[in-house]
Design brief:
Dihydrodipicolinate Reductase, domain 2; six-stranded parallel sheet; binds 1,4-dihydronicotinamide adenine dinucleotide; about 25% strand; Rossmann fold; five-stranded mixed sheet; alpha/beta; binds the ligand O=C(O)C1=N[C@H](C(=O)O)C[C@H](O)C1; 2 domains
Length: about 230
Amino acid sequence: MKIGLFGYGKMGKMIAGMAEERGHTIATKVDLDTVEIDYASFDVAIDFSTPEAAFENITNCFKNNVPVISGTTGWLDRYQEAVELCQQNDSAFIYASNFSLGVNIFFELNRQLAKMMSQLNEYTVSMEEIHHTQKLDAPSGTAITLAEGIMENSSYMDWQLNGTGENSIPIHSIREGAVPGTHTIAYDSEVDGIEIKHTAHNRKGFALGAILAAEWILGKKGIFGMRDVLNFT
Ligand SMILES: NC(=O)C1=CN([C@@H]2O[C@H](COP(=O)(O)OP(=O)(O)OC[C@H]3O[C@@H](n4cnc5c(N)ncnc54)[C@H](O)[C@@H]3O)[C@@H](O)[C@H]2O)C=CC1
Ligand SMILES: O=C(O)C1=N[C@H](C(=O)O)C[C@H](O)C1
């Protein structure tokens, strides 16, 4: 598989190394200094760039008939627009706030737990996410997906960054050192507490998940998610 890498930062570099180990070729590396892109030179684009750059990177690929895997967070106010452009161009797209297998299992666990806890009014939920100090967005994309999973299975209506409100899930964002990504969901009552937590020890899980998604999407058309790639029912 020939890959066009959009964003050659921490994730781009890790994906390049791992993809080559799996026998793939990095045909193009696109970063800030790129002036021209030969879209015909790659089968699939993997975008781990910046909140400002992602929408343009992704939709230019659709216009050039290239399927896209995007892990960039912080640009989702334009997600629906990107979906429409993908469909108009008969292309294929997977966005995931987190590509790691562990976090995708954690997403499922979170939904199940939210469903059970929604019966118990004495518990209140809160979330904490910790990431490295270079991270541009807050809360993390993963925290937003987790909050959405809770809202779909409870009476919580929205989330709030570093604040509290009626029917709102408080998300506390912490930026610290070189932390790759830690997410904790806590339910607390007067008598006890329940916590579930995912800790990324490094970025390998994110990179492998994105490459698996790229391998999976070849030859397909449409909008998919990691649940499709991992065959979660
Ligand atoms: N979904 C997931 O599993 C994961 C998502 N992420 C997200 O991926 C994104 C990138 O993360 P990192 O690699 O850690 O960041 P990074 O800051 O190390 O790399 C981003 C790269 O994008 C480049 N860039 C800037 N403008 C560009 C443009 N117009 N076109 C192409 N590249 C451009 C920057 O120069 C930089 O090299 C972030 O939004 C982060 O939140 C990170 C890890 C896992
Ligand atoms: O910026 C990061 O590093 C990460 N971003 C993603 C997010 O915003 O959830 C995924 C992972 O936690 C690492």
